[in-house]
Design goal:
heterodimer; A: mainly beta; Ubiquitin-like (UB roll); five-stranded mixed β-sheet; two-stranded antiparallel sheet; about 10% helix; globular; B: alpha/beta; eight-stranded mixed β-sheet; six-stranded mixed β-sheet; 10 helices; about 30% helix
């Protein structure tokens, strides 16, 4: 008996992930990269455990959230490229 | 033995400014700095160019210096950002002094105006509800001090100043200064070593006042002005062993600097978690949104403090050819350029732009 999947908005794209998945998992399904460095290089998760800060995205208006640590919730709006 | 018209000891923002001014006058200048240029109090500072009006001599020096800072308004490396200063009041009684502050600043040619509660939130939406108003000084700016110190030293070197970097002055001699490699530089000496002043001039009292700063990730647009509480001066000028005051600055990158703390009698460089907590709680009380942000780094620094809160600028009378520019506490960045002008005018025997008496080092000799 599994919980219903949750739906998020990633840069305007609707994404569905299993309940309990991280926001990082949702972003990986929808976006080409998580953010760009100051010099414009694409970035994506490296450690997956909140240490490297490479997977930062804006979640519901709050910048620099480590997406690997944030559980996906129904209706979240995620913006990459901050 | 090399001889000079001025040997500047210390290349923080004050020493570098004095070297640049003296070299610009055609003097042969030497600069001695054991650590990184602008690497002491200069690198730890916020870089807020602010007119503090509580003391007439402090205001006169700030005013002179703020005008000189306009030279660097368009210099990219200075990161000069005219965000303005917004002083905020928590208690109605804190607003009582605003009219007098506005008048004092106006008399010094600095434009400030009272701000009502409604406008306060239009200017800074993230301020905590219930504040009663404040005062806006729209023309004030922030800079990145260590880069400016390096730039001033470079300008001095373009005017033939000689920099002895990685060298330390270990003693004042009859004819100049001796360095840690045993060499001696000959000429008048300017001691601009901040907190380290007593190592060379133990006759002049100097205490170090520790401070903490936090810098956040980039959050562009959240904070628009340099924000301070109107009670800031009570903390800055008080003699309490430790105090905190709300002082937050938007950097041009979108990062936010959060201060401020003051502690006497602490030599430990390490961050003090209880002090950091006190300082942050004070900031959160004014801007609750700051709680949610990601801090990147915390550091400490030491402000060089004289007993009466005014810097030492001028001749050190007991020794011939010995000058001092040190002890600017939290206003060294603001007042560095004015200090350099005042010092070099006296060195050259010119009429100084402002009355130099309040800053005369001899006032502290017992």
């Amino acid at each position: 008996m599994s919980a219903a999947p949750v739906r998020l908005d990633i840069d305007g794209v609707a994404v569905e992930v299993p309940a309990g998945a991280s926001v990082a998992a949702a972003v990986a399904l929808a976006a080409p990269h998580f953010r760009r460095s100051r010099s414009g290089q694409p970035r994506a998760p490296l450690c997956g455990m909140g240490v490297c800060f490479e997977c930062r995205v804006r979640i519901d208006g709050v910048e620099h959230q480590r997406s690997c640590l944030v559980p996906a919730r129904e209706g979240m709006r995620v913006a990459c490229d901050d | 033995m090399a001889s000079y018209d001025l040997i500047v000891l210390g290349a923080g923002i004050v020493g570098a400014a004095c070297a640049e001014r003296a070299a610009g006058e055609g003097l042969r200048v030497a600069v001695v700095e054991p650590g990184p240029v602008g690497g002491g109090a200069t690198a730890a500072a916020m870089g807020h160019l602010v007119a503090m009006d509580d003391d007439p001599a402090e205001l006169a020096l700030s005013r002179l210096s703020l005008r000189l800072w306009e030279r660097f308004a368009d210099l990219p490396l200075a990161e000069f950002s005219r965000c303005g200063t917004l002083w905020v009041a928590r208690e109605p009684r804190e607003l009582d002094g605003v009219a007098a502050k506005v008048a004092r600043l106006a008399a010094a040619g600095i434009e400030a105006r009272p701000v009502g509660a409604d406008e306060l939130y239009a200017l800074e939406p993230y301020l905590t509800p219930g504040l009663c108003g404040g005062m806006l000084v729209a023309g004030e700016a922030v800079v990145y001090p260590p880069r400016v110190a390096q730039h001033l030293l470079q300008l001095a070197c373009e005017r033939q100043a000689q920099a002895f970097l990685g060298r330390r002055a270990v003693a004042l001699t009859a004819h100049g200064a001796r360095l840690d490699d045993g060499s001696e530089l000959r000429g008048p000496v300017l001691v601009a070593t901040g907190c380290a002043l007593p190592e060379l001039l133990p006759q002049l009292p100097m205490r170090s006042r520790k401070g903490h700063l936090v810098i956040t990730e980039r959050y562009p647009g959240r904070i628009r002005h340099q924000l301070l509480e109107l009670g800031y001066a009570d903390s800055a000028h008080g003699d309490a062993d430790s105090s905190v005051a709300f002082n937050v600055q938007p950097r041009p990158t979108g990062q936010i600097l959060i201060g401020s703390s003051r502690e006497f009698g602490v030599e430990e460089r390490a961050v003090s978690p209880p002090m950091l907590r006190r300082m942050l709680e004070r900031a959160f009380a004014f801007v609750p949104m700051l709680r949610e942000l990601q801090a990147l780094r915390v550091w400490t620094g030491f402000r060089p403090c004289t007993p009466d809160g005014l810097p030492y600028i001028g001749a050190f009378a007991p020794r011939p050819h010995t000058w001092v520019a040190a002890g600017h506490e939290g206003l060294g960045v603001t007042t560095a350029l004015g200090t350099a002008q005042l010092l070099v005018e006296q060195l050259l025997g010119r009429a100084p732009a402002i009355d130099p008496a309040p800053y005369a080092p001899t006032r502290m000799l017992r």
